[in-house]
């Protein structure tokens, strides 16, 4: 196991009716900016629950955060925060709303162009405090220090991380996910599953605790994910998926182990240039990474196949190949595509899709050996 330092300061309030706890979680007298998306929270009762809980606070609303949050939209919120002297941010939504809120939090006091935080690793010196009310189990942003933002004008999608953007608290009520469209639920299942894979499927370093947690999370997400679309109002299924998604990316299982994340980084350009859902990009690219980097990942692939999919017959190599097929089958059973061609992407698009890898100076994968040339070859496997 590799050396590590670990701290996760997020307070989690989990369970039915937990939104009512908001008034006790936000500092008294706060001027709150309530950030949310396209208005679905006004149709499913979440908006009413939140606003009832915020009575007594000075609240300004900022709706309209996109499914892949836009830099341009976030900067409009920054102007409002400065104008109204907002001192607390509340994200009500899924990972996109939370990511946008994190970027708003660090942009308010940033000296210079806040896009430099993402494109140049600009130093973050301060951030407004923020909390979250989670409405979609997927990204883990409610309990981590990461954010991903897209810029429409340049067709870029980039990420940043800072310990200053850990939420002060996150409210997780599984019941609020009952009314989600099937597509969003399926995306969340696949996204959270692949978050675990990115931290687990590398090479062994004898990190037994992290591996055991990762294997348990993958098993739960796989088992419950296959049930949830048919049983959308089953509280236990929703609760297990919500908590699993949070733990899939709350920085715990990644401590002391090598990590990959190449599927995520390569997927950014598929979203930025073609508008594909984030989870859809992962469902396409992960099997390609598994196949291209087969020898490097064979040991963990075989182990994953055994504990997650019950694959026990054949040699280690055979079981590893079966695991790749089982992952692709899982994504398809959740309703996602697994080939670029199914999304209208052809070979002529691959150079532009792979170009951001070199432009950003990324060396992807656990061995840092994936440049734009390799990225293009991986994408070619998924046409």
UniProtKB/TrEMBL annotation:
Which CDD domains has this protein been placed in? BDH
Keywords, comma-separated and alphabetical = Oxidoreductase
PROSITE patterns linked: ADH_IRON_2
Extract the InterPro entries matched here. ADH_Fe/GldA, ADH_Fe_C, ADH_Fe_CS, BDH-like
Recorded GO CC terms: cytosol
Domain Alcohol dehydrogenase iron-type/glycerol dehydrogenase GldA spans what residues?
A: 9-174
Q: Which GO terms describe its molecular function?
A: alcohol dehydrogenase (NADP+) activity; butanol dehydrogenase (NAD+) activity; metal ion binding; methylglyoxal reductase (NADPH) (acetol producing) activity
Q: What is this protein called?
A: Iron-containing alcohol dehydrogenase
Q: Which organism is it from?
A: Parabacteroides acidifaciens
């Amino acid at each position: 196991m590799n050396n590590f330092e670990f701290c996760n300061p997020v307070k989690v309030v989990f369970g039915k009716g937990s939104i009512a706890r908001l008034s006790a979680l936000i500092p008294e007298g706060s001027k709150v900016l309530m950030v949310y998306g396209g208005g679905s929270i006004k149709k499913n009762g979440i908006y009413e629950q939140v606003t009832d809980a915020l009575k007594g606070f000075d609240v300004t609303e900022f709706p309209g955060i996109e499914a892949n949050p836009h830099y341009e939209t976030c900067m409009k919120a920054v102007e409002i925060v400065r104008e109204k002297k907002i001192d607390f941010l509340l994200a009500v939504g899924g990972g996109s709303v939370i990511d946008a809120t994190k970027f708003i939090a660090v942009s308010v006091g940033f000296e210079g162009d806040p896009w430099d935080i993402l494109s140049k690793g600009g130093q973050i010196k301060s951030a407004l405090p923020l909390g979250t009310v989670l409405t979609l189990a997927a990204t883990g942003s409610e309990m981590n220090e990461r954010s991903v933002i897209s810029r429409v004008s340049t067709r870029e999608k980039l990420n940043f991380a800072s310990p200053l953007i850990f939420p002060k608290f996150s409210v997780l009520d599984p019941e609020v996910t009952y009314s989600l469209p099937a597509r969003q639920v399926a995306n969340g299942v696949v996204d959270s599953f692949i978050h675990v894979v990115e931290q687990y499927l590398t090479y062994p370093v004898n990190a037994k605790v992290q591996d055991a947690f990762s294997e348990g999370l993958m098993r739960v997400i796989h088992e419950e994910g296959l049930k949830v679309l048919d049983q959308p109002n089953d509280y236990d299924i929703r609760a297990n998926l919500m908590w699993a998604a949070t733990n899939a990316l709350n920085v715990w299982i990644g401590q002391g182990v090598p990590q990959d994340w190449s599927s995520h980084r390569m997927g950014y350009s598929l979203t930025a240039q073609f508008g594909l859902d984030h989870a859809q990009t992962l469902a396409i690219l992960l099997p390609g990474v598994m196949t291209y980097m087969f020898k490097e990942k064979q040991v963990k692939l075989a182990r994953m196949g055994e504990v997650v999919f019950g694959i026990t017959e054949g040699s280690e190599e055979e079981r590893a190949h079966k695991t790749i097929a089982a992952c692709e089958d899982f994504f398809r059973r959740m309703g996602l595509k697994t080939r670029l061609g199914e999304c209208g992407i052809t070979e002529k698009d691959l150079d532009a899709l792979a170009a951001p890898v070199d432009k950003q100076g990324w060396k992807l994968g656990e061995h840092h050996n994936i440049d734009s040339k390799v990225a293009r070859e991986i994408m070619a496997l998924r046409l």
